[in-house]
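On clarity, I found the account of how folds are encoded harder to follow than it need be. What matters is that the chain and its backbone geometry are given together, residue for residue. I therefore recommend that a typical entry be quoted early in the introduction. An entry of this sort, consisting of the sequence and the corresponding backbone structure tokens, reads as follows:
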Amino acid sequence: MNSRSGFLGTSVWLSGLVVWMGVAVAGCSGIQNEEAGSTDMPRHVELASDGVWALNYTPWYIHTFAITGPKGSGISGGGPNVWPMKQGGRPAGGGAEVCCMSYPRDWQPDLKLTVRWLMDKKRDGKTPGYWYKAENVRIAQYDGKNAGGVWGIFLPGDRVRIMIVDGNHDGGNNANNHPPDDDPYIAQGVLDDEWNRLYRDGGMQ
């Protein structure tokens, strides 16, 4: 995780680091980090594993984010920190990769994920960021045989889209294209009361 001396409070950085480490270990080691109460997955779904990238179209800094699947699915992962968007509305990010996220090798149309991200909107170097959560996040159809990574795309208005790129640039899986506002795979986020209570401002309470 990048150092932001003079910009982030130490407690916020450590809190994000602890959560990111837990997510990363879960994604790479196969330890389950699933969201209870989500749609159940079919049994014996084969999983693939890829790195995770991020693009940020918002004016806010994102410390880290986590993606979790239904209980018992084995689907989990997390992504890198990412700076606010660049001048002219160009997204920040795309360079840093975090290993890894597990996801179904074959697209599952009924799969719904939970995405959480820690966003700093105050940017005063003192006030901790807040966790946001989007539930029932779906992924556009992809070709698992040609999959090349998982992308978290963060949009204004606390919205997020999760994408698995597969070389199908005309099928909605091109990370270079800004998702249209009517994209059905964009999910609305809200403040996450639970994670803000547990992980904001220095860790668990």
Notes: Confidence is low (pLDDT under 50) at residues 1-34. Residues 10-29 form the longest helix (20 residues). Residues 10-199 form one domain. The radius of gyration is 16 Å.
